[in-house]
Design goal:
With 455 residues, chain A is α+β, with helices and mostly antiparallel strands. Helices cover 49% and strands 18% of the residues of chain A. Classes of the chains: A alpha+beta (455), B alpha/beta (233).
Chain lengths: 455, 233
């Protein structure tokens, strides 16, 4: 508000100054015109006295002309003519040297009665006699008008400020009304009606853009929420399956009676099922942990191929047992540093390799190749290609879903918790990488992992 | 353990868990007392002077860590093994920092629990690591990392030897896959699926250790794990 007041004051001062200048200039012009006219009307009468022809008036009759003050002097300073409006007072002091010589020069002079007069002087010759014509208009009317103008401004500024404040508030209120409506609607959106969206009046203005962004957030939130709901249901189902087995095994053993060998068998069975249950719970916890791990977290710098080799040596006995040959291509390219949570990435790679080995036939080849794709920011691509049954059409995305086990292949005997690849995907996504199965591969499965590497 | 049985105090609020632990540890030859609340446990620590405290962290009313803190502040001489289902690294570090001697996440395998208890109580006794170990006709030279049966040298890989040594150190006891993963493979993530790695490795060891001989030393205990011992007649 004070800024607005200051601006208004500056504006008023400028308008005032401009108005004053314009009026003064107008006065000057009028006077010049008047001098030229008066010069034509001055004459010496038969007695040799200078007279002004009063029978001529420009029309419309201006009070400026009526009120004008005029004095004609000869070059010695003797007053030859003095208009009645001067009431005998001299107009200005003695002649100044060069006064009105070349042009009309303007001065503000003070009369004896104290009023100010805007006066111009001009040298002119009448009937062969050179004389100095002084013509002046009183400044009193103009100053009065300027004073009125000043008063007007003085009243107008506070008034303008009040109006601006009221109008500003009204405009702001109207402008913010959609925002209020949005806020009210947003407040009403909870988990139970996540499908609701904000109504966007104008998608092009800032508010509309904000609304769109908010709706987009709601979209993702709703998606995540549905995913969570499905996941919870899936998890409950996955936990119920081994639980059902536990119960049945126990009940059957009890019902059958006291054969200690059978009891032993049943208990062993039960313990194995608890192992399965535990594995599922551990991987659920791991998923939760990986999800909670921010982009930061405990990161270290390490070489990718070293990690892959470490995992290979962990699984070496399986590879050997199944007589699988592991072929590594362009391993030197894999000597790239990555900054990530090593433990989590290790688990991801164990899962990928474990999965590949699980489906590899005995005596087959597992090919691991490294590449640095060009035209992308520094990335390392690691490809794991097995010679197993491959991925059924349409399941290339699904294999990463939690608890997914393919109905297409006879994998029932081989499937684990159904979380291994989800864990791998989550971890790699979090690192900023990407993992997918190549859809064009005909023989076996080709898992492509792309990781961002450090320079 | 000698002639004096070590006394163990269990502070665990889950009745079934507590009963199972009592029965299992009594069968393993310990004198066992159970408490179901922190207050009771704290009282028993002072009156019974147990050698070892099995402490559950999530107890009603008072947190297990509180008791531990108090016991350590008083300077009571008792080994403490924490049992809890909150088994993140941070929980573990917190427990050990306050003064627990060991930490076991639930669910655990019972053989692992007894192994840890034995290890903790053994710290009192003089450790006598002999460089030779004999189990039946199997003898292991820990210094030269060789093993033989009936005087016949076994050709073992480094990992196979580590596995055999670990089994021998736990002679007579069952070791679980979790213990093997942690202590032999040094896999600290419980998620890493190396059960089949262990099974294959075990099968190979068995082929070298037992297949050529009449007496089988390496036993598979269904649902529990493995054990190296002479078969009872």
């Amino acid at each position: 508000m004070s800024v607005l007041a200051a601006l208004l004051l500056i504006y008023a001062a400028m308008v005032f100054a401009f108005q004053y200048a314009v009026l003064t200039r107008q006065l000057f012009h009028d006077e010049v015109q008047d001098v030229i006219t008066a010069e034509g009307l001055l004459f010496f009468d038969s007695q040799g006295r200078l007279q002004l022809r009063e029978d001529y008036f420009s029309r419309p009759q201006s009070h400026l002309l009526v009120d004008r003050m005029m004095e004609v002097r000869n070059l010695n300073g003797d007053v030859l003519y003095r208009s009645a409006t001067l009431r005998g007072m001299p107009l200005g002091g003695p002649n100044r040297t060069g006064e009105g010589d070349v042009d009309f020069d303007a001065h503000i002079v003070r009369l004896q009665d104290g009023s100010h007069v805007f006066m111009i002087s001009h040298i002119h010759s009448i009937q062969g006699r050179t004389m100095l014509i002084r013509l002046g208009y009183s400044l009193v009317p103009m100053r009065e008008r300027m004073f009125q103008f000043f008063l007007l401004l003085l009243i107008a500024i506070p008034l303008a400020l009040v109006i601006a404040a009221v109008a500003g508030q009204m405009i702001a209120k109207r402008a913010l009304r959609p925002l209020h409506q949005m806020a009210t609607r947003a407040e009403g959106i909870t988990a139970s009606n996540l499908n609701q969206r904000l109504i966007i009046m104008n998608p092009k203005d800032e508010l509309g853009q904000m609304g769109r962004v908010f709706n987009h957030v709601l979209d993702r939130l709703e998606q995540a929420f549905h995913q969570l709901q499905r996941f919870t249901a899936d998890a409950a189902h996955e936990l119920r399956t081994p639980l059902a087995a536990l119960r049945t095994i126990g009940e059957v053993a009890l019902a059958k009676g006291q054969d200690s060998a059978e009891y032993k068998e049943a208990l062993g069975n039960i313990l194995e099922e608890t192992g399965r249950l535990n594995e599922t719970i551990e991987s659920l916890l791991l998923l939760a942990r990986a999800e909670a791990t921010g982009v930061e977290g405990d990161k270290t710098l390490f070489v990718v191929s070293e990690l892959v080799n470490e995992v290979l040596s962990l699984l070496e006995i399986l590879i050997e047992e199944r007589r699988i040959s592991v072929v590594q291509e362009h391993e030197s390219l894999g000597r790239a540093y990555i900054r990530a949570n090593r433990g989590l990435l290790r688990i991801a790679i164990v899962n990928i390799l474990h999965n590949a080995l699980k489906f590899s036939p005995n005596g087959s080849v597992l090919r691991i190749s490294y590449a640095r794709p060009e035209n992308v920011a520094p990335h390392l691509r690691v490809t794991f290609q097995d010679q197993g049954p491959g991925i059924a059409p349409g399941e290339h995305q699904q294999v990463f879903e939690r608890f997914f086990t393919s109905p297409a292949h006879d994998t029932a005997s081989k499937s684990g918790s159904g979380l291994g690849l989800s864990v791998a995907k989550l971890v790699i996504d979090r690192i900023g990488g990407e993992i997918r199965f190549d859809q064009k591969t005909q023989v076996g499965a080709k898992c492509i992992m792309t990781l961002p590497i450090s320079k | 353990m000698g002639s004096i049985r070590s006394r163990i105090l269990i502070v665990e609020d889950d009745r079934k868990m507590s009963a199972a632990l009592v029965s299992g540890l009594e069968a393993a030859g310990y004198e066992v007392v159970a408490a179901s609340s922190a207050e009771e446990g704290f009282f028993l620590v002072h009156t019974l002077r147990p050698d070892l405290l099995l402490l559950d962290l999530t107890l009603p009313q008072r947190n297990g860590l509180d008791i531990l803190r108090q016991i350590r502040q008083e300077g009571t001489d008792v080994r403490v093994l924490i049992l809890t289902s909150h088994n993140t690294v941070e929980d573990r570090v917190e427990g050990l920092r306050i003064g627990a001697d060991d930490y076991l996440g639930k669910p655990f395998s019972f053989p692992e629990l007894t192994a840890r208890i034995d290890a903790l109580l053994r710290r009192f006794l003089s450790p006598s690591p002999s460089s030779f170990m004999d189990i039946g006709d199997l003898s292991i030279d820990t210094r030269n990392r060789t093993a033989s049966r009936n005087g016949e040298q076994l050709e073992l890989t480094a990992r196979e030897f580590d596995l055999l040594l670990y089994l021998a150190e736990n002679h007579g006891r069952t070791v679980s896959r979790e213990m093997l993963a942690k202590d032999v493979w040094r896999e600290h993530s419980r998620f890493t699926p190396i059960d089949n790695v262990i099974d294959v490795q075990m099968a190979r060891l068995r082929k070298k250790l037992d297949d050529p001989f009449e007496v089988k030393l390496l036993q598979t205990v269904r649902g529990l794990g493995f054990s190296l011992r002479e078969p009872q007649a």
